[in-house]
């Protein structure tokens, strides 16, 4: 079992390494000091198990776990934390276990057994985490690496075959998530203008009619207006009244 350890405290990482050394068939392939480093390591190395602290600088463990839930193959996630207040959020982020620090050898062994069971039954499709707090960014995977895109930088999201194209302040990236799941998770930030397109509310400037009478949405940073479907026009007019 390939393992990534993510904790901002070197002594905590050292303790986990020591405990894992006593377990058969465990290979610690990387260590990380925050959630972003953990995601980069997972994108590159595709571990089976990630041991995640929750309170880390920058991208914390909970948000990192929400991203990992959509990775393919999806790793098992076990939280190792000094606080019990995050247990519900941890399981909403699709963690398979929650260990309190200082982590005991027998609890870690039980978590590894759970991870083996999870891996044995892991299906071919990613299962995004449901419930809990929404992410503050989306994650685009790029040939063994990744790019984290803050939601504030996104102009619009457009479905294209089995991918979604993220149009953002620095260009375009593909993510392997459905437009429907993104709409549900980020309902307060994006509004649907077409069956294949969500637009950031802060990007909407006005609606206008094109040469053929088709309604179009003008975006603050859009190179060209986007087509609006008839069923979305009334909702968009309401949105613009409240912007």
Write up what this structure looks like.
The protein is α/β, with parallel strands linked by helices and 243 residues long. It has helices spanning 10-21, 35-45, 61-68, 87-92, 105-120, 179-185, 230-241, and strands at residues 2-6, 27-32, 49-52, 76-81, 97-100, 137-142, 145-150, 154-160, 163-168, 171-175, 190-194, 197-200, 204-209, 215-219, 226-227. A hairpin with a 2-residue loop joins strand 6 and strand 7 (145-150). The longest helix is centred in the middle third of the chain and has 16 residues, at 105-120. It is elongated and about 70 Å long. It starts with a strand and ends with a helix. The mean pLDDT is 90.
Topology:
Layout lengths: L1 E5 L3 H12 L5 E6 L2 H11 L3 E4 L8 H8 L7 E6 L5 H6 L4 E4 L4 H16 L16 E6 L2 E6 L3 E7 L2 E6 L2 E5 L3 H7 L4 E5 L2 E4 L3 E6 L5 E5 L6 E2 L2 H12 L2
Parallel strand pairs: 1-2, 1-3, 3-4, 4-5
Antiparallel strand pairs: 6-7, 8-9, 8-12, 9-10, 11-12, 13-14, 14-15
């Amino acid at each position: 079992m390939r393992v990534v350890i993510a904790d901002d405290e070197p002594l905590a990482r050292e303790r986990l390494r020591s405990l894992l050394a006593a377990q058969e068939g465990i290979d610690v392939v990387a260590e990380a000091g925050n959630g972003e480093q953990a995601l980069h390591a997972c994108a590159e190395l595709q571990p089976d198990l990630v041991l995640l602290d929750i309170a880390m600088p920058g991208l914390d463990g909970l948000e990192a776990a929400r991203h990992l839930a959509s990775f393919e193959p999806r790793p098992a996630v076990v939280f190792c934390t000094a606080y019990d207040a995050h247990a519900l959020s941890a399981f909403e982020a699709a963690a398979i276990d929650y260990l309190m620090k200082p982590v005991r050898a027998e609890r870690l062994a039980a978590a590894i057994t759970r991870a083996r069971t999870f891996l044995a039954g892991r299906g071919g499709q990613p299962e995004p985490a449901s419930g809990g707090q929404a992410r503050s960014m989306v994650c685009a995977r790029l040939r063994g690496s990744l790019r984290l895109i803050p939601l504030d930088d996104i102009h619009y999201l457009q479905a294209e075959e089995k991918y979604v194209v993220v149009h953002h302040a620095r260009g375009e990236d593909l993510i392997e998530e459905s437009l429907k799941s993104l709409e549900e998770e980020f309902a307060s930030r994006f509004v649907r203008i077409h069956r294949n397109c969500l637009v950031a509310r802060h990007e909407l400037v006005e609606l206008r009619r094109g040469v053929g009478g088709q309604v179009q949405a003008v975006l603050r940073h859009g190179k060209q207006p986007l087509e609006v479907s008839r069923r979305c026009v009334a909702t968009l007019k309401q949105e613009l009244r409240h912007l």
